Amino acid sequence: MSEIVAEIRGTAGLVTLNRPKALNALSLDMIRALTATLLAWAEDPRVHRVAVRGMGREGPFGAFCAGGDIRFFHQAVLAGDPRLEDFFTEEYTLNHLIHGYPKPYVVFMDGVVMGGGMGISAHGSDDSLRIATERTKMAMPETAIGLFPDVGGGWFLARCPGRMGEYLALTGQVIGGGDAVAARLADGVLVSSELPAAWEALAHADSFELLRERLRDAPSVARPLASQRADIDRYFGLATVQDIVQGLEADGSAWATETAALLRKRSPLMLHVTLEHVRRARHMTLVSDLRMEREMVRNCFQLRPGTAGETMEGIRALAVDKDHAPRWNPPRIEDVTQEMVQAFFASPWPAHAHPLHDLR
């Protein structure tokens, strides 16, 4: 069974991510197939617009993409598989391709949209539509597995209003369609029952503009985080992770207490790395951020080789042994030093040999 189904229908190129048992988590083969398809359609005069959806367990829609295949990451490290390097280089190149895609790009973010799923949905140009639904579960949950929000996550999270980006990056909190729109990570919300008709309509010439108008006129939906925006901006704008957590713990409200407890479960080291990452990316182009992230992800697997790194330990605890009891090193937010953090931002390559050297 093909992990990606691509077809031209009318004047639309339609892609279905087709790995439903894995919630369409991206494999290297999927990244390569999607990249090849998008490159071909960019030059194909028959294709006027492109749309991407995920296959759910009961049919199309219901799940978009749960991220990169973290089990593959774990196995590749243990086996010394060089495809791990290819995975990140080619995934980030795909994110860049989508960001500058020359044709309208429509993504149906129904169900789970996390990690690498954000990388193929959040980067559309001004000629893109990112459609959420009442079933959308969006997150960048990488700090829970000892990683950081990659796939250009530093760049798009840094451009969320206020300090929403820092909040989403550090906590990995799952948000719905309304909050995704408020965070500028989606363009509008459609009821999931309307998705099949919207998908079929894209074959027709004026469908993109009609869909854009529908999203613009759609009724607003619940935005639970809106009531916390002042607190999010107050605490997640503080200078350090330690300041953020201590401020939340001193607050005493239910939201602040729960948020602090959530942060205490994440990798202390990667919380510090992630905060530095988002704040650097706020002043970068996407290309510069992707190059930085490529360096960072290499360091996640190479600074402490084998199973010693935070990422391997996080994946072990979440997806391999599933004991949900990661042994972080260092174990406390207060124990992380600036030297530990800065090591993740040192490039393993000279500029001319960088894997993403050719991105423009």
UniProtKB/TrEMBL annotation:
Domain of life: Bacteria
Annotated GO biological process: L-valine catabolic process
GO-annotated molecular function: 3-hydroxyisobutyryl-CoA hydrolase activity; isomerase activity
UniProt keyword terms in alphabetical order: Hydrolase, Isomerase
Gene3D superfamilies per record: 2-enoyl-CoA Hydratase, Chain A, domain 1 (3.90.226.10)
SUPFAM superfamilies given in the database record: ClpP/crotonase
Domain Enoyl-CoA hydratase/isomerase: 13-345
Keyword Acetylation: no
NCBIfam families for the chain: PRK05617.1
Protein's UniProt name: Enoyl-CoA hydratase/isomerase family protein
